[in-house]
Design a protein that fits this description.
CATH superfamily: Ureohydrolase domain
Oligomer: single chain
Helix content: 25-40%
Shape: globular
CATH architecture: 3-Layer(aba) Sandwich
Structural class: alpha/beta
Bound molecules: 4-carbamimidamidobutanoic acid, zinc ion
């Protein structure tokens, strides 16, 4: 039988991190999918970095399906390899990285689901893990930020998205995928000196959307700015805004152009390339990243796994940035 993992901490008796299944020994298309073929958290006991799935999409305003993203991103992550040449780090050897599985959130009760996400995050953080969350729709950033505030106080936020997600309500509902950052602002979860959107584009409801957003403290780097100014200038400006504050990075995959991420619920033309996103993230090496998420992959609209592959590489980039910062506990 093919084991999901080739080794466990107990079976190796070693204190070295347990890495992914070796794809030169067990074909990468064999076995049950975990993120990057890493061990499950329960197989290794603890992790410096945990990849947590949140299969939740009850907050969407248009095309549903992000509930299927954690499973699809794990499948698409089978081809990731253990060394990151761009950052010169072997994340899975530098620290213990493990797949923490999925939060079983209630699809019929959004506040209850959000509490479950926060509770799951809290348990992992208590055990000494940093978390890279794979959503799910963007609603789930709110409970993750609530937990960040509890641990670090108000955090800096770098938000990659086509959309502002600082809208007020939809159909009178407070907790939706278009509103998490307004709720976060209202709940004082954010360090209003250090808030940035990147990749913004597309039509808005009114000009007030922009004045509201600016009032909350956000700075906007549009998709056009990235094209006109280039990645190095954008990275420099973002780093200046963030400084060494505790930083949460929230990545809506629809920040990418639909050519690079067709599998998403609210696609907008004119976005950045996956190469630009990876380059900007790489430029954030050494910042004080305390948590991150990748959200809004909707596999039903994907083609040839383009979006799930992009998301798996984005998650790998985030794990690598965290691993560069060393062991968390
Ligand atoms: N967070 C995402 N992906 N989309 C928000 C779009 C909200 C709207 O329908 O206007
Ligand atoms: Zn979006
Ligand atoms: Zn979003």
């Amino acid at each position: 039988m093919i084991e999901a993992t080739t080794a466990t901490a107990a079976s190796t008796g070693s204190t070295e991190p347990v890495g992914p299944v070796d794809s030169s020994k067990v074909p990468r298309f064999a076995g049950i999918a975990t993120f990057a073929r890493l061990p499950r958290l329960e197989d290794v006991g603890r992790a410096d970095i945990a990849v947590m799935g949140v299969p939740f999409d009850s907050g969407v305003s248009y095309r549903p399906g992000a509930r299927f993203a954690p499973a699809q991103i794990r499948e698409a992550s089978r081809l990731l390899r253990p060394y990151h040449p761009g950052l010169d780090v072997s994340p899975f050897a530098a620290v213990q990285v493990a797949d923490a599985g999925d939060i079983a959130c209630n699809p019929y009760n959004i506040p209850e689901a959000l509490d479950a996400v926060q509770e799951g995050a809290s348990t992992l953080l208590d055990a000494g893990s940093k978390i890279v969350t794979i959503g799910g729709d963007h609603t789930i950033a709110l409970p993750l930020l609530r937990e960040m505030k509890r641990r670090h106080g108000p955090v800096a936020l770098l938000h990659f998205d086509a959309h502002l997600d600082t809208w007020d309500t939809y159909f009178g509902a407070d907790y939706t995928h278009g509103t998490p950052f307004r709720r976060a602002f209202e709940e004082d979860l954010l360090d209003t000196e250090a808030l940035a959107h990147a990749g913004i584009r597309g039509p808005l409801y009114s000009k007030d959307d922009l004045t509201d957003d600016a009032r909350m403290g956000f700075g906007i780097t549009t998709a056009m700015d990235i094209m006109n100014e280039g990645v190095p200038a954008v990275v420099q400006a973002l780093r200046e805004r963030i400084g060494d504050r505790p930083l949460y990075i929230s990545i809506d995959i629809d920040c990418l152009d639909p050519a690079h991420a067709p599998g998403t619920g609210t696609p907008e033309a004119g976005g950045m390339t996956s190469r630009e996103l990876l380059a900007i993230l790489r430029g954030l090496a050494g910042t004080n990243i305390v948590g991150a998420d990748v959200v809004e992959v909707a596999p039903a609209y994907d083609h040839a796994d383009i979006t799930a592959i992009a998301a798996s590489h984005v998650a790998y980039e985030l794990v690598s940035l965290m691993a560069l910062n060393g062991r968390s506990a």
